[in-house]
């Protein structure tokens, strides 16, 4: 699948401290220690609607991780999927009377445009579920052969399910108790009431074809992939087990990331699918989480169409800490627009105060679990001083702009 255009990253002298991130599985902030090539998998969209600010906040978070790694001299192998075959896509297509394939292609194209406008660095591998079906079939075969999965005894719909007890460590990533797992499993795409399952928490690996649904051939019969197995297969075949960061929104902690990890671990025998599990908070509007059911989504494409600078959208989303559930308000946007204007004014000065110490603080704050509020405050201080008093370091404005571009993805020129 086609990704979006790459973004040139300025080179900034110096280097920051090693990156530390909160790991959901360990419930602590700890160092991220990649090799020469840092590896990251971030779960992508199900393309049945446009990119909203909750999506954007997640991908901006992991764009910062990407930029920090690159600033530290790492090559980055970043993988992202697109769940372009799934129930929500079919439901939206049926509601609107259009082909689900056309809907998915259109919304994926719009997502790419939004990411490019927000200056998000593209993944090296951008893989759709449809194009990875053969990989999923192969992985499901291995799980069935090992006894980690079974076929439901249902003559009409012989679905394939993963045994929740197939790995001893199941549940380590989320840390949730059984009741919490059951609640989230039912709310987030699971089917605990499905007859024939050995355990209500067993997760679907392969869905046998139903009337009107697309299907692909497999040894278990025609059907299509389950949700979690898609990400396990794509990640294993691109960056392998034990990659550095698995990322997504906090709503993916369970069941999606718990199961995708368990699927992979049941095949590889590894203790951990990813070395770090990193999750972002939710973006709300009027005191509620943005969601399709509430009808309170704010779309990036609509904001761009209204003439709002994408850099201001980016700064508005970075003004809160990535792990915190936070609101999007007119005040957040207005503050971001004022900040952007100040920074651009400072960056355009013929001379200004030295920026080296400020850039060091920027790197330090970002390395400390992506503390963007403190990072933005440090840059505000330099920009305010530069505008109010100026200075005699003619290279400082260019250095300031390069650092903001390289590390925060905001173009001041």
Question: Could you please describe the fold and organization of this structure?
Answer:
- The chain has helices at residues 53-71, 87-96, 100-117, 133-146, 178-187, 227-238, 253-268, 300-305, 310-318, 330-347, 356-367, 372-389, 396-408, and strands at residues 20-23, 28-31, 37-42, 75-82, 125-128, 149-151, 160-162, 203-208, 223-225, 245-249, 277-280, 283-285, 288-289, 326-327.
- With 413 residues, the protein is of the alpha/beta class.
- α1 (53-71) links the parallel β3 and β4 (75-82).
- The longest helix has 19 residues, at 53-71.
- The radius of gyration is 22 Å and the shape is globular.
- The two termini are 32 Å apart.
- The mean pLDDT is 95.
| Main sheet overview | 5 strands, parallel
Q: Output the structural class.
A: alpha/beta
Contiguous runs where pLDDT drops below 50 for at least 5 residues: none
Q: What is the arithmetic mean of pLDDT?
A: 95
Order of helices and strands: EEEHEHHEHEEHEEHEHEEEHHEHHHH
Radius of gyration, in Å, reads 22 Å
Strand order of the largest sheet: 5-4-3-10-11
Q: Which strand-content bin applies to the residues?
A: 5-15%
- The N- to C-terminal Cα distance equals 32 Å
The helix tally amounts to: 13
Coarse shape:
globular
Name the helicity range.
Answer: 40-55%
Give me the count of strands. 14
Describe the structure concisely.
With 413 residues, this protein is of the alpha/beta class.
Outline the fold blueprint.
Blueprint: E1 20-23, E2 28-31, E3 37-42, H1 53-71, E4 75-82, H2 87-96, H3 100-117, E5 125-128, H4 133-146, E6 149-151, E7 160-162, H5 178-187, E8 203-208, E9 223-225, H6 227-238, E10 245-249, H7 253-268, E11 277-280, E12 283-285, E13 288-289, H8 300-305, H9 310-318, E14 326-327, H10 330-347, H11 356-367, H12 372-389, H13 396-408
Parallel strand pairs: 3-4, 3-10, 4-5, 10-11, 12-14
Antiparallel strand pairs: 1-2, 6-7, 7-8, 8-9, 12-13
Helix pairs in contact: 4-6, 6-7, 9-10, 10-12, 10-13, 11-12, 11-13
């Amino acid at each position: 699948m086609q990704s979006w255009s790459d973004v040139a990253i300025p080179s900034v002298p110096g280097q920051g401290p090693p990156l530390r991130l909160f790991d959901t599985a360990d419930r602590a902030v700890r160092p991220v220690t990649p090799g020469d090539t840092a590896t990251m998998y971030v779960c992508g969209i199900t393309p049945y609607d446009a990119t909203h600010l909750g999506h954007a906040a997640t991908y901006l978070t992991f764009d910062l991780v990407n930029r920090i790694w690159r600033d530290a001299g790492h090559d980055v192998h970043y993988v992202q999927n697109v769940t372009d075959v799934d129930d929500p896509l079919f439901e939206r297509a049926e509601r609107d009377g259009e082909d689900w394939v056309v809907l998915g292609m259109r919304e994926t194209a719009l997502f790419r445009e939004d990411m490019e406008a927000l200056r998000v660095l593209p993944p090296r591998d951008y893989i759709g579920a449809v194009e990875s079906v053969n990989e999923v079939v192969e992985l499901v075969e291995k799980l069935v052969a090992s006894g980690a999965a079974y076929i439901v005894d249902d003559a009409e719909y012989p679905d394939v399910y993963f045994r929740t007890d197939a790995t001893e460590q199941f549940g380590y990533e989320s840390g949730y108790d059984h009741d919490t797992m059951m609640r989230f499993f039912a709310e987030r795409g699971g089917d605990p009431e499905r007859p024939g399952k050995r355990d209500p928490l067993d997760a679907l690996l392969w869905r046998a074809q139903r009337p009107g649904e697309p299907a692909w051939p497999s040894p278990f019969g025609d059907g299509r992939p389950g949700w979690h197995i898609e990400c396990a297969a794509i990640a294993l075949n691109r960056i392998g087990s034990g990659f550095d960061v698995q990322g997504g929104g906090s709503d993916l902690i369970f069941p999606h990331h718990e199961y995708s990890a368990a699927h992979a671990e049941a095949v590889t025998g590894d203790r951990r699918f990813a070395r770090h599990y990193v999750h972002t908070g939710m973006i709300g509007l009027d005191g509620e989480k943005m969601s399709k059911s509430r009808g309170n989504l704010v779309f990036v494409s609509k904001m761009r169409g209204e003439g709002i600078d994408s850099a201001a959208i980016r700064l508005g989303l970075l003004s809160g800490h990535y792990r915190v559930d936070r609101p999007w308000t007119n005040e957040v946007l207005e503050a971001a627009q004022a900040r952007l204007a100040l920074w651009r004014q400072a960056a355009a000065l013929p001379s200004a105060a030295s920026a080296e110490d400020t850039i060091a603080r920027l790197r330090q704050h970002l390395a400390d679990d992506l503390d963007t509020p403190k990072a933005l405050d440090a840059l505000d201080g330099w920009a305010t001083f530069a505008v109010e008093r100026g200075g005699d370091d003619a290279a400082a404005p260019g250095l300031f702009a390069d650092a903001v571009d390289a590390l925060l993805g905001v173009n001041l020129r």
